[in-house]
Every structure is written in structure tokens, then in C-alpha cells.
Amino acid sequence: MGWLLDAHVHVLGADILWREIIGNGIGLASAVLGMNRRTAAWPVGMVANVLLFTVFLGGVFATPQDTDLYGQAGRQVLFFAVSAYGWWRWHANRAAGSGAPAVEPRWATGRERLTLLAATAAGVAGAWWALTRLGGFGPLADAWIFVGSMLATYGMARGYVEFWLVWVAVDVVGVPLLLRAGYYPSALLYVVYGAFCVLGFRAWLKLRRAPQVTTDPQLEAIG
Fold first, then answer.
1. pTM beyond 0.85, yes or no
2. 57: Cβ–Cβ under 8 A, 6 or more apart, which residues?
3. pLDDT, tens digit, for every residue of 65-90?
4. Quick check: 35 and 200 in contact, CB under 8 A?
């Protein structure tokens, strides 16, 4: 177990944990599965959550990056919980649809957007206060990453097309924060993931605009 926690590679003068590299790689695989509306996206992502939780508590686990990003670590716990909900929801949708996709992309309604905006404002304020008291690194940026990530994950579970744009906003804030904290593989993944989210948004937008094909039972009978 000690070897698993301590295994690292030396890159450009810095020690990088294999857990961080592997966890981020698994996270990207989860995103690819999510773009293709594969239910497996959720359990795969949960594996990444477990690994990255230990990475972002650098001080607690005495890792090469000894900075504790409590928001980043805490969001892995909530990711795990929300992913369990997403896994259940997509599986139920697929089971009820007799072979239909696990989720049908759609825009959030005006009421849903207002509710999510209010929850985001309250969540960022509360997370910023808590992270400041804990002495976390970059508390305001970390608070947005924490709350924005939850919003995006919930949006993915519900099938909101906007969730891709929320992820882009999380990545824009996350890259400089992670670079300053020395989490270089995670920062690199955020750059890659930001570009991937643009592709995912375009893919889901295309699905949203595609005409819905319905089958007429009478025509089937004639055929």
C-alpha cells in the first residue's frame, strides 16, 4: 500500500504521482464515455474520484505536492455520490426505453436555470467561507471549481446541454490554480478536458437539433 501511495515519476525537475496521472487518465476516459452517452461513464469516473481524492490531500498523504486543495478533494467525494445518482438515472432510462439512449440531451428550462444559478451562488459563498477557514490554497477559485463541478455533473445526469459549458468555465479557473499549486498532470488534463468539452458540447448540440424520428404503428402494420 505504501508503494501505491508513493509511486511517482520525475518529470522536468518535479516529482509527479502515478496516482495523479492514472486518475486523470481514467477521468478523461469517463468524459469520452459520457459524450457518447454510455452508462459506463459513471462507474469509470468513480474510480478516478477515489484516486484523485488522495492526490489533492497532498499534505495529509505526504505526497510530493504537499499543498492541500480541500475543494478539489471534497469534490471527489461529492462526485462519487452524484455519479451514483447519474449511474442509476441513466441505467433506469435505458431500461425503460427498450434500447433507447441512456439520456436525451436537452436545454434546461428557464426555471431550472434560475434554480441552479441560485444554488451556485449560495454554494460558492458557503464553500469559499469554509475553505478560507480551513486554510485551503486559492479558496475562492477552489470554491468555484468545487461547486461548478457539482453543477456540471448533475447537469450531465439530467441531460442538460449546458453542462459542457459549465465544465469549460471550471477548466478556465482550474488550470492556473493547479499550476500554482504544482499539480501539473491535473492542470494539463484541464487543458485537454476544456478542448474536449467544446467537442462534447457540439456533439450534444447536434443531437439536440437532430429531428426526432417517430414510428407510426399503422405504417409498420402496412409494411
1. no
2. 68, 69, 70, 73
3. 556 667 677 778 888 888 888 888 88
4. yes
